[in-house]
Design a protein that fits this description.
Radius of gyration: 23 Å
Order of helices and strands: HHEEEHHEHEHHEHEHEHEEHHEEHEEEH
Strand content: 5-15%
Number of helices: 14
Shape: globular
Oligomer: single chain
Bound molecules: pyridoxal-5'-phosphate
CATH class of the largest domain: Alpha Beta
CATH topology of the largest domain: Aspartate Aminotransferase, domain 2
Strand order of the largest sheet: 4-10-9-8-7-5-6
CATH superfamily of the largest domain: Type I PLP-dependent aspartate aminotransferase-like (Major domain)
Number of strands: 15
Largest sheet: 7 strands, mixed
CATH architecture of the largest domain: 3-Layer(aba) Sandwich
Number of domains: 2
Structural class: alpha/beta
């Protein structure tokens, strides 16, 4: 498969179609792409939902025994097959040994948060000691902001992107309020220009130039949940540092999806969830990163017994013997059942390797983009159309493409669900479609397009 140095996926796809003398729009092309895909076997490592078990399929329209078209990894990744075994091991160990489960392999409960540091570290470009699995995403965002958001009257603002995921916005606003600032003044949001869908990097840089000295923390999403836009994390981090701000990234939609180099970019802190591209199950443990240059910044936030150094934790001291860096943010003893779920997925990432996933993603999402543009951007007045609002520039996106439609979104969603497509819609007006290179095929994308064509024809006939 192609390397990511090529910037236009259509060029690569067209050249493969030409070499095989097939039409890029044909099912044969999807078949050839799947046959050439070195990652195709990873699909079998996941339990892929069937049409028959999904609640919204119309059993008259689909074969219940066939796999659905799952394009929702941006929201919830699929279950790795090994998850059952790893969780069962923990339940059995607990059942058979009671409290000894704290000390017995695999994943001894008292040490299970040591697992994943290397594997997660590789996915976010960080030293293992700068990364930990703990809590959930919003909790981690608060814990990190408690430390890094130290507002003064001169520098008290927080910058995030406009239309950020509500939890992030609530977190920033409540942090500002907690410190005695008016959130409407303290939290600045940068929006797309009128009639544009995504935020221009130059507008972020301009805002930093103008307001940077008043900004305490820049804390944006690495990949925007609604539009799928990937921000230039390295450039923005540098520009914000030049103005003296701390920089944190919410990597919920970025981890396992795009290249991340937290140490190289000199990011101050980051956090993420593990249930989207990381496939660890709903509400599973979050991840957190603190740059090792802040290792001694450990006195100005909340502590619990798990913030204590591992070596002295069970001395039960009156004063916390605070661990270095990110480990000092841990409060509670970790849940091995959840770490077992994260492990099932991290092992697959270790085998598949992020660089290979990125190569496939470039083509798979590019293929989706090409088919959508070809089939659904008709110039005819009454023909339903789909518009992609995610950037065309492949350096500014990951797996996800977000669409708006000229026809009612809800109706289209309902009809494609009936036919076995799993994807989601987000208010006010976007459908998110995400082919994930670990378990999606070119055939899935092809099938999605066929179903969408059928549904568009139906909408047109019914005059929706
Ligand atoms: C960008 C972003 N931030 C925060 C959250 C909230 O996550 P949690 O409920 O794990 O705290 C989500 C959940 O999807 C998200 O996508």
């Amino acid at each position: 498969m192609a390397t990511t140095t090529e910037v236009n996926p259509l060029k690569v796809l067209s050249s493969i179609a030409y070499q095989h003398d097939v039409d890029i729009l044909s099912p044969e092309f999807a078949k050839i792409m799947d046959e050439m895909d070195p990652l195709r076997h990873f699909r079998e490592r996941f339990t892929y939902p069937k049409n028959g078990t999904l609640p919204n399929t119309d059993k008259k329209l689909v074969d219940p025994n066939e796999e659905c078209v799952y394009l929702c990894g941006n929201s919830l990744g699929l279950k790795p097959r090994t998850a059952d075994t790893y969780v069962q091991q923990q339940l059995d160990k607990w059942a058979e040994t009671g409290v000894e489960t704290h000390f017995l392999e695999p994943l001894p409960a008292s040490r299970c948060d040591q697992y994943g540091k290397e594997e997660m570290g590789r996915l976010v470009g960080a030293k293992p000691s700068s990364v930990t699995l703990m809590n959930g995403l919003t909790v981690n965002l608060h814990l990190l902001l408690m430390s890094f958001y130290q507002p003064t009257n001169a520098r008290y603002k927080i910058l995030l992107e406009g239309h950020a995921f509500p939890s992030d916005r609530y977190a920033m606003r409540s942090q500002a309020k907690l410190r005695g600032f008016d959130p409407d003044d303290a939290v600045i949001e940068v929006y797309p220009r009128p009639n544009e869908h995504t935020i221009r990097t130059e507008d972020i840089l301009k805002l930093l130039e103008q307001e940077g000295e008043k900004i305490a923390v820049v804390c944006m999403s690495g990949v925007q949940y609604y539009t799928g836009q990937k921000f230039d994390m390295g450039l923005i981090t540098k520009a914000a540092h030049d103005k003296g701000c701390f920089v944190g990234w919410d990597l919920a939609h970025a981890v396992g999806n795009v290249e991340i180099r937290l140490d190289d970019w000199d990011v101050d802190f980051a956090c993420w969830c593990t249930y989207k591209y990381m496939n660890s199950g709903p509400g599973c443990l979050g991840g957190a990163y603190v740059n090792s240059k802040h290792n001694k910044r450990n006195t100005d936030h909340l502590h619990g017994w798990w913030s204590n150094k591992e070596t002295t934790r069970f001395e039960m001291r009156d004063e916390c013997d605070v661990a270095d860096g990110v480990d000092s943010f841990r409060l509670c003893n970790p849940p091995p059942i959840l770490v077992a779920l994260a492990k099932a997925s991290l092992e697959i990432f270790e085998e598949a390797k992020m660089e290979n996933l990125l190569k496939k993603q470039f083509l798979l999402t590019g293929y989706l983009e090409h088919l959508v543009k070809t089939h659904f951007s008709s110039g005819q007045l009454d023909a339903p159309t789909a518009t992609i609002i995610t950037p065309e520039d492949t350096t500014q996106r990951g797996c996800q493409l977000s669409f708006t439609f000229s026809f009612p979104l809800k109706q289209i969603h309902k009809e494609i669900q009936k036919r076995g497509v799993v994807c989601d819609v987000r208010l006010p007006n976007a459908m998110r479609i995400t082919p994930v290179p670990l378990y999606n095929s070119f055939r899935d994308v092809y099938n999605f397009i066929k179903i969408l064509q059928e549904v568009f024809a139906l909408c047109k006939t019914e005059g929706a």
